[in-house]
Design a protein that fits this description.
84 residues, rod-shaped
Length: 84
């Protein structure tokens, strides 16, 4: 590993930290949505503005995470985030 490689890795740490934070938020919201889907009827969920906002936030977070992965310029690094 060269000094440049190390500097590049350190420069990516904030990106990884933010990715981790948003990933945790995404999974927490997904769990909440799953619980609501079990506890509430489809009619109740369809009428709920809070459930719609939750779904919108999940969609936005998923898109943000996808963009974060796309912005990483090193293929091996980006590949570690892709689904199997």
């Amino acid at each position: 590993m060269t000094e440049t490689d190390l500097e590049d890795a350190v420069d990516r740490l904030p990106v990884l930290a933010e990715y981790g934070r948003r990933s945790r938020e995404l999974f927490a919201l997904a769990r909440k949505r799953a619980v609501l889907a079990v506890e509430k009827s489809g009619t109740e969920l369809a009428a709920s503005e809070e459930y719609a906002a939750l779904t919108d936030r999940l969609d936005a977070l998923g898109a943000d995470l996808d963009r974060s992965i796309d912005e990483v310029d090193e293929e091996p690094f980006a590949a570690s985030f892709r689904p199997l």
